[in-house]
Amino acid sequence: MSTSVAGTGSASVHRPAQLRGLVNEGRVAELVTQLLYELGEDPRREGLRDTPRRVASMWQTFLSQEAPEATCFPEPTVNGQLVIVSGMSVWSFCEHHMLPMNLLVSIGYLGEDTVVGLSKFGRIAQHFAGRLQVQERFTTQVAEHLTGVIGSEDVAVSVRGEHLCMSMRGVRMERAFTHTVSAQGRLRSDPVLNQQFLTLTAGQSTA
Fold it and tell me: N or C: which end of the chain has fewer CB within 10 A?
């Protein structure tokens, strides 16, 4: 498999960092230095002297969110109980403008003789946020991953996103939010369960 495509007189186009499994921090720092020059800044001045290295280190950390191991515990008293974990705030980067977006995540599932370790929900959200993203894809990815964790499609994910690509540029709507919901299994087909999930997560969506 080719890892780059080169054309006459053009720069190589490399595979995404997440596909290579690493970030070339030295090269990223060089590119940030070049960007600062093109923006009319002097990367050698005191305030910017270490900026390229810091930016490269930030991307290395951001793109290194490992997928968490599934942790489920047997709990025979749980049978069809709706479990919701909310208030999880993660940061990602919009892939269209490479500007940050803050995602407030709520996750619900139906317990069937097992419960999922609570810390795993936040780690799963962080894992899928740790890349260039769009909110709609993020919501679906979290939901699909959780179906594998619990071994059931009875999962719902609600996300409220604040996108700096909308609030600090373009129309500059500072208080605009985007809401996405992915409901599967009984949390989609059962109107009572679906309404319970939406009602219990509505407070987070309007906070």
Answer: N
Q: Which of 115, 118, 132 is nearest to 65 (CA)?
A: 132
Neighbours of 177 (CB within 10 A): 16
Token pair, residue 188, equals: 């989609």
SS3 (DSSP) at 200: helix
Task: Please give the Cα distance from 91 to 121 (Å, whole number).
Answer: 15
Alpha helices (H) in the chain, listed in sequence order: 17-20, 25-38, 51-62, 118-129, 135-150, 164-167, 186-189, 191-206
Residue 66 has pLDDT above 70, yes or no: yes
Token pair for 197: 């999930």
- CA–CA gap between residue 87 and residue 181 (Å, rounded): 15
Position 184, amino acid: Q
Spatial neighbors of 11 by CB under 8 A, at least 6 apart, are none
Q: For 173, which DSSP code?
A: -
CA 159 to chain centre: 10
> Can you count the helices (H) and strands (E) in the chain?
8, 7
CA distance 45 to 203: 47
Residues 142-174: pLDDT tens digits?
999 999 999 899 999 999 999 998 888 877 777
Place of tokens 């995602």: 103
